[in-house]
Amino acid sequence: MSIPALLERNAREFGGKDAYREKEFGIWQSWTWAETAEEIEALALGFINLGVNEGDFIAIIGRNRPYFYWAMVAAQSVGAIPVPLYQDASADEMAYVLDHCGARFVVAEDQEQVDKVIDVQDGLKQFEHMIYIDPRGMRKYDHKKLHEFSHIQAQGRAAHDELIEDLIARRGKATYDTTCVMLYTSGTTGKPKGVVLSNQNIVESAKNASEFDKLNSSDEILAYLPMGWVGDFIFSVGQAYWTGFCTNCPESADTLMADLREIGPTYYFAPPRVFETQLTNVMIRMEDASRMKKWMFDKAMGLAKRVGPAILDGKSVGLIDRLKYKLGDIFIYGPLKNTLGFSNVRVGYTAGEAIGPEIFEFYRSLGINLKQLYGQTEATVFITVQPDGEVRADTVGVPAPDVEIKIDDSGEIFYRSPGTFVEYYKNPESTASTKDPEGWVATGDAGFFEKDSGHLRIIDRAKDVGKMSSGAMFAPKYVENKLKFYPDILEAVLFGNGKDSCMAFINIDLTAVGNWAERNNVAYASYQELAGHPRVLDTIQEHVEAVNKSVAQDDMLSGCQVHRFVILHKELDADDGEMTRTRKVRRVIVEDKFSDIITALYDGSSEVSTVTEVTYEDGRKGSISATLQIRDAKVQPVSAQKVAAE
Amino acid sequence: MSNEGYVTADGRKIGGTVMEMKNITLRFGGVKAITDISFDIKQGEIRAIIGPNGAGKSSMLNVISGFYVPQEGEVWYKGSRRPQMRPYEVAQQGIARTFQNIALFEGMTVLDNVMTGRLNHMKTGLFSQAIWKGKAEQEEVANREVVEKVIDFLEIQAIRKTPVSRLPYGLKKRVELARALAAEPSILLLDEPMAGMNVEEKEDMSRFILDVNDEFGTTICLIEHDMGVVMDLSDRVVVMDYGKKIGDGSPDEVRNNQAVIDAYLGVSHD
After folding, report:
1. H-helix or E-strand spanning residue B213
2. Which of A579-588, B218-227, B235-244 has the lowest mean pLDDT?
3. Pick from A14, A98, B142, B252: most CB atoms within 10 A?
4. Looking at the domain that runs over A466-645, which CATH code has it been given?
5. Which CATH number is correct for B6-94+185-265, 3.40.50.300, 3.30.70.1250, 2.40.30.10, 3.20.20.70?
6. Would you call A137 and B152 a contact, using CB atoms and an 8 Å cutoff?
7. Å from B99 to nearest chain A CA?
8. Of A161-165, A588-592, B82-86, B165-169, where does mean pLDDT reach its minimum?
9. % of chain A residues with pLDDT over 90
10. Which residues in chain A are closer than 8 Å to B10, comparing Cβ atoms?
11. What is d(CA B136, CA B148) in angstroms, rounded to the nearest whole number?
12. Beta strands A370-376 and A381-385, pairing class
């Protein structure tokens, strides 16, 4: 069994059903499974014609478009290995991956991506040919190594008779044990690692997850998450090919929300940040709504908060409340869900980061079946998932089907499953240190199972959990998440390992704070100016002190209260290496880069001047300098016994 | 002036003369806006008209687009002398333009605005368009396709259904360009396409202008204040000052022309 084999099956069984849609020129263009099979075959023949050998690596660089999914399956059909990259990566980051896997071929979207590869191609020994989809702006380029996607397909079609036997033979060699895809994990430390996933990993994981949520060929998804991320591969390829459902690609990144509304997916996935942004937008627009509408909205949301999640879980709710909720559905929830594009969502997932309980409850109270899962690339996504009716904001659910989990003495989570990755490419040491001979994989996360429910709770990255000088436990993520649940705060980084007190960096959310500034006649010219505004500092200080109060109530972590904080003058950015492409903070790099600010936080100064190098999207460098105010936050007294007992 | 084409520094082949101004003089009452100016525009080139404020640049563009009728001189287009024409007749000949102070239909969506650029390509009458059956419907679909390609080209998909009045200035400028492009012009006149834009918007607009020229082979004649932009974009430049032509040539030639330097930097009269 392999993805190309599933394609043949789908073309046979669901031939006339839509497999892909993409909005282009204002219209949803669609391809049935039969047409998809033909397009992929033409491309696969074109690949052979171009000289693709079995075992070659083909890099895929672009936003979610049907052509790239076809390119991945066509690569598999000829025995090559697709390597999807993050399309917003810089040329240097791409150079590392392209060189590491030794990609002979690159399929790129447009001039922007082609230019990046051309910039670095001299350092790539194995690189030979590039195929692009959008020819715009490249008429004058040297086309010896550059080919248009449709031309490759046309050449493939023309050479059908001589190459088809070779293709059939190659396609037949794909088994459960052959490599399906290689994905680079961004990694919060060090260079990215190439995770090799077999057909078994992908197909079994897709099958289990599809059965768990009862997905079928009539489902619809919107493919908009980065193609380099394992989640997109499992949803848009694994599950799409297993169940035969339709993958819809948006017109552009800017039209995403409109496209979401038009498609109305039934199966939806988004990181917490997307849900946060949507909620912030709803709240901002409600602020501007008429008094009547606002009153209705508040009233209805009050009711939804009280009974919505219970109704969604099928628990018993009073008849009057049930009727009121129905009414609310007609006037508020229904139209709101429609505006957000969630009218048809049957199963929705969020993962990657902790989601704020209020945000989570908001969507669930509207009747959207939003759940959490816990996973990683090495597990082919699924480690734990929340079953319908057992959904909570603070846990990540029970082990996914066929997944075994154990927790060692230090609290680190280990798993073993059919999705367990084959190896890190060209990196046996890392493979050995992550996966033991029995197949148990270390997640690097610390957590525990709740006794009553059997649900897993994640505390933090195991290596980030430390001790303060008093001996109290230091778990930064716990505090950071509490801070990030405020819409004003986009990102927070906590320091304090081995120290006597904790300090924090804060990034404000420009949308939320900018809107606040507009309402309160606070003038500002730039992100930096807004971030340094005294009234913004006041607001953030209130949030920090509120978080301190809540942290103080936790016996284990009361030492992690924030004593002093600073609002950073720039957003932490993947282009500057401060975050991964999946937007996880790289603690070590942040600590190193802003060490002057950390020093100032600990030595008691009231402000600090700093100069920071920034990288623009096109790779140019610049620097920004700023003088940052440091604020003290009120901390709650920690009872002495608890520290002593430690 | 020769009718020959030439090859640009970046290797584009420019064809023969498509439009020629011969001794144009334009007066408003006693004021001479343009005095005896001659220059040509060649097939496929980006031709700029620059000059200080009040030099008569916009007047010149309005002469080309048929909005002003010069008292003296001739406009030659595609090898024959252009008789006096109404602006819409000039548009029918394949000349489209944008305006310095945006002239869009503020209450209409971007899509509808761009569709108006197709007016000269619509043949069905008012009545059949109102009923919207058969031919009128087919015609609209065909024209919508062209418009959608322009929308895709200028990357304004996300604002397709947004009323123009809600758009920021930079995007309005882009919508104007879209409307002009929708007419599939052979000559595109741009009146200060970068005015009032920030650096990023200017970079975007420059890229679009170059792409239009490269992709569709459209001849472009633009007026611009921003010298940096003009020097980077254009193949040949006409310099005007007080209604007179004081320079004409490649950006480098113009940059080193003493009359041009004096006009821009000022010269002391002692």
Report:
1. helix B199-216
2. A579-588
3. A98
4. 3.30.300.30
5. 3.40.50.300
6. no
7. 26
8. B82-86
9. 69
10. 140
11. 18
12. antiparallel
Q: Find, among A61, A130, A65, A63, the residue nearest to A97 by Cα.
A: A61
Domain residue limits, chain B = 6-94+185-265
Q: pTM to 2 decimals?
A: 0.86
Nearest to A137 among B158, B160, B214 (CB): B214
Kindly state the helix (H) or strand (E) to which residue B181 belongs, with its residue range: helix B169-182
**Residue where the block lists tokens 């895929």:** A60
Q: Which of A137, A140, A251 sits opposite B157 (nearest CB)?
A: A251
Q: What is the ipTM of this complex?
A: 0.80
Cβ-contact A247, A66 below 8 angstroms: yes
B152 chain-A contacts, CB cut-off 8 A: 24-25
**Which chain A residue has its CA at the smallest distance from B207's CA?**
A137
Chain A interface, best mutation among B152, B167, B200, B215, by max A CB count within 10 A: B152
Query: Chain A partners of B158 at a C-beta cutoff of 8 Å?
Result: 252, 254-255, 258
Asked if A252 lies within 8 A of B10 by C-beta distance, the reply is: no
Return the number of CB contacts < 8 Å for A and B.
34
- Residue B99's φ and ψ, nearest 5 degrees, are -115, 155
Residue A125 has what DSSP assignment? S
CA distance B206 to chain A (A): 13
Tokens standing for A359? 């945000």
Residue A406's alpha-carbon distances to A349, A383, A442, A446, B24, in angstroms, are 24, 11, 10, 11, 88
Q: How confident is the model over B100-157, as pLDDT tens digits?
A: 888 899 999 999 999 999 988 887 777 777 877 778 888 888 999 999 999 999 999 9
Query: Do the domains at A3-198 and A466-645 have one common CATH topology?
Result: no
DSSP string, A510-578: HHHHHHHHHHTT---SSHHHHHT-HHHHHHHHHHHHHHHHHHHT-TTTGGG-EEEEEE-SS---GGGTS
CA-angle at A323, arms to A312 and A361, nearest 5°: 30
Class of domain A396-463: mainly beta
The pLDDT confidence band at residue B268, using thresholds 50, 70 and 90, is low
The type of residue at A348 is G
Q: Say how far apart CA B139 and CA B129 lie, in whole Å.
A: 9
Per-residue pLDDT at A59 exceeds 50: yes
Interface test with B, best of A22, A23, A25, A249 (most B CBs within 10 A): A25
pLDDT at A643: 45
Kindly give the pairing relationship between strand A105-108 and strand A81-84: unpaired
Identify the CATH number of the domain defined by range A3-198.
Answer: 3.40.50.12780
For the sheet with A404-407, list strands across it: A404-407, A412-416, A441-449, A456-461
**Token pair listed for B43:** 């097939």
The residue among B157, B161, B166 with the most chain A CBs within 10 A of its CB, best to mutate, is: B157
Give the distance, in angstroms, between the CA of residue B156 and the centroid of all CA atoms in the same chain.
Answer: 20
Which two three-digit tokens encode residue A16? 């006339």
Pair of tokens at residue A105: 């071929």
Domain parsing of chain A, residue ranges:
3-198, 396-463, 466-645
